[in-house]
Amino acid sequence: MQHLTSTPTAKAPAERFTGDVYLNMIDAPTDPARLAAALVRFTPGARTNWHRHANGQTLYVTDGIGLVGTRDGEVVRVSAGEIVKCPAGEEHWHGATDTTLMAHIAMVVGDAAGDGTTWLEPVTDEQYTQALATLSA
Fold first, then answer.
1. CB atoms near residue 121 (< 10 Å)
2. Residues 6+ apart with CB under 8 A from 73
3. Could you say which of 20, 24, 99, 137 has the lowest number of CB atoms within 10 Å?
4. How far apart are CA 41 and CA 34, in angstroms?
5. Is the Cβ–Cβ distance between 110 and 88 less than 8 Å?
6. Calpha distance 50→16 (Å, rounded)
7. Is the pLDDT of residue 101 over 80?
């Protein structure tokens, strides 16, 4: 057994996120484990770049209100206690609303080469605004 009382908070890399995003790693896998998990906190308006996961991703929202969007224009509003499962290979993004922070635990199952995430281009302000408008309509 290993008891960890806390992990350091790190600012998320600007090349993968828009706005202020902070990470606390929960678990980085070592062989033979493949599950990576992190607590990710988004300030209002902050979001990930477009990305996909080789083996999919599960998001468990712990606080606030957020958005998850896909390339086909589907957008869901998420809040504390809700879960979103993104299937393998689906290009998507997630983040806070423009007025409310959002935190989630992000879980991915990687492979021998890493966590299986492919990072893509930023979500534009226009795409983000359209996602917010979709939820207001």
1. 8
2. 134
3. 137
4. 23
5. no
6. 8
7. yes
Mean pLDDT of 10-37: 92
DSSP 8-state symbol, 96:
E
Whose tokens are 């992990």? That residue is: 7
Determine the average pLDDT of the residues in 94-112. Answer: 94
The residue assigned the tokens 């935190």 is 103
Q: How far apart are CA 84 and CA 82, in angstroms?
A: 7
**pTM for this one?**
0.93
How far apart CA 136 and CA 65 sit, in angstroms, is: 14
Architecture of the domain defined by 16-136: Sandwich (2.60)
Domain boundaries defined on the chain: 16-136
Is the CB of residue 64 less than 8 Å from the CB of residue 96? yes
Q: What is the pLDDT of the chain when averaged over all its residues?
A: 94
Give percent helix, percent strand, percent coil of the chain, each to the nearest 5.
Answer: 10, 45, 45
What is the distance between the alpha carbons of residues 29 and 50, in angstroms, rounded to a whole number? 24
Q: Tens of pLDDT along 59-84?
A: 999 999 999 999 999 999 999 999 99
